[in-house]
Write a structure and sequence with these properties.
Shape: globular
Largest sheet: 5 strands, mixed
Radius of gyration: 13 Å
CATH class: Alpha Beta
Order of helices and strands: HEHEEHEE
Protein backbone atom coordinates (compact mmCIF):
# COMPACT_ATOMS: atom_id res chain seq x y z
CA UNK A 1 0.00 0.00 0.00
CA UNK A 2 1.42 3.41 -0.95
CA UNK A 3 1.20 6.62 1.10
CA UNK A 4 -1.73 8.00 -0.92
CA UNK A 5 -3.80 4.86 -0.29
CA UNK A 6 -2.91 4.92 3.40
CA UNK A 7 -4.25 8.49 3.71
CA UNK A 8 -7.68 7.57 2.34
CA UNK A 9 -10.36 6.27 4.65
CA UNK A 10 -14.08 5.72 5.02
CA UNK A 11 -16.19 6.97 7.90
CA UNK A 12 -19.72 6.01 8.95
CA UNK A 13 -21.50 8.63 11.07
CA UNK A 14 -24.79 8.81 12.93
CA UNK A 15 -25.63 12.34 13.99
CA UNK A 16 -28.34 12.81 16.64
CA UNK A 17 -30.19 15.80 18.02
CA UNK A 18 -32.22 18.41 16.19
CA UNK A 19 -30.78 17.49 12.79
CA UNK A 20 -33.87 17.01 10.61
CA UNK A 21 -35.81 19.95 9.22
CA UNK A 22 -32.84 22.32 9.59
CA UNK A 23 -31.05 21.74 6.27
CA UNK A 24 -28.48 19.40 7.77
CA UNK A 25 -28.26 17.04 4.78
CA UNK A 26 -27.94 19.83 2.22
CA UNK A 27 -25.36 21.68 4.30
CA UNK A 28 -23.45 18.43 4.89
CA UNK A 29 -23.44 17.75 1.15
CA UNK A 30 -22.10 21.24 0.46
CA UNK A 31 -19.41 20.83 3.12
CA UNK A 32 -18.40 17.36 1.87
CA UNK A 33 -18.15 18.60 -1.71
CA UNK A 34 -16.13 21.63 -0.59
CA UNK A 35 -13.71 19.25 1.15
CA UNK A 36 -13.52 16.87 -1.81
CA UNK A 37 -15.17 14.02 0.09
CA UNK A 38 -17.46 11.48 -1.60
CA UNK A 39 -20.34 9.39 -0.20
CA UNK A 40 -23.91 9.95 0.93
CA UNK A 41 -26.09 11.37 3.68
CA UNK A 42 -29.70 10.58 4.62
CA UNK A 43 -32.33 11.04 7.31
CA UNK A 44 -33.20 8.01 9.42
CA UNK A 45 -36.66 7.05 10.66
CA UNK A 46 -35.71 7.80 14.26
CA UNK A 47 -34.82 11.45 13.64
CA UNK A 48 -31.06 11.12 13.20
CA UNK A 49 -28.89 11.66 10.13
CA UNK A 50 -26.66 8.89 8.79
CA UNK A 51 -23.61 9.49 6.61
CA UNK A 52 -20.97 7.42 4.84
CA UNK A 53 -18.04 9.43 3.55
CA UNK A 54 -14.78 8.56 1.84
CA UNK A 55 -11.71 10.57 1.08
CA UNK A 56 -8.52 11.93 2.50
CA UNK A 57 -8.33 11.18 6.23
CA UNK A 58 -7.67 14.81 7.15
CA UNK A 59 -10.64 16.03 5.07
CA UNK A 60 -12.90 13.40 6.64
CA UNK A 61 -11.82 14.61 10.07
CA UNK A 62 -12.77 18.16 9.05
CA UNK A 63 -16.19 16.93 7.91
CA UNK A 64 -16.71 15.09 11.20
CA UNK A 65 -15.76 18.22 13.13
CA UNK A 66 -18.32 20.16 11.07
CA UNK A 67 -20.96 17.50 11.89
CA UNK A 68 -20.53 18.16 15.61
CA UNK A 69 -22.03 21.61 15.03
CA UNK A 70 -23.93 21.33 11.77
CA UNK A 71 -25.71 24.22 10.08
CA UNK A 72 -27.46 27.10 11.85
CA UNK A 73 -30.63 25.79 13.47
CA UNK A 74 -29.20 22.34 14.21
CA UNK A 75 -28.57 21.18 17.75
CA UNK A 76 -26.24 18.18 17.58
CA UNK A 77 -26.25 16.11 20.77
CA UNK A 78 -24.17 13.12 19.60
CA UNK A 79 -21.98 12.03 16.71
CA UNK A 80 -21.27 8.32 16.57
CA UNK A 81 -18.39 7.51 14.22
CA UNK A 82 -16.79 4.38 12.89
CA UNK A 83 -13.64 4.37 10.78
CA UNK A 84 -13.64 1.78 8.01
CA UNK A 85 -11.43 0.73 5.10
CA UNK A 86 -11.61 2.95 2.03
CA UNK A 87 -13.50 1.23 -0.82
CA UNK A 88 -13.42 3.91 -3.51
CA UNK A 89 -17.00 3.19 -4.56
CA UNK A 90 -18.34 6.77 -4.77
CA UNK A 91 -17.82 9.40 -7.47
CA UNK A 92 -19.56 12.28 -5.68
CA UNK A 93 -21.40 13.17 -2.49
CA UNK A 94 -25.19 13.02 -2.55
CA UNK A 95 -28.34 12.98 -0.49
CA UNK A 96 -30.07 9.61 -0.62
CA UNK A 97 -33.04 7.76 0.83
CA UNK A 98 -33.44 4.19 2.03
CA UNK A 99 -30.81 1.48 2.03
CA UNK A 100 -27.61 1.93 0.06
Amino acid sequence: MNDAQRQHARAWLRISGRVQGVGFRYSAMDEARRLGVTGWVRNTHDGAVEMVAEGDHAQLQRLITWCHGGPPGALVTNVEERWLDHRGEFTDFRITRGEN
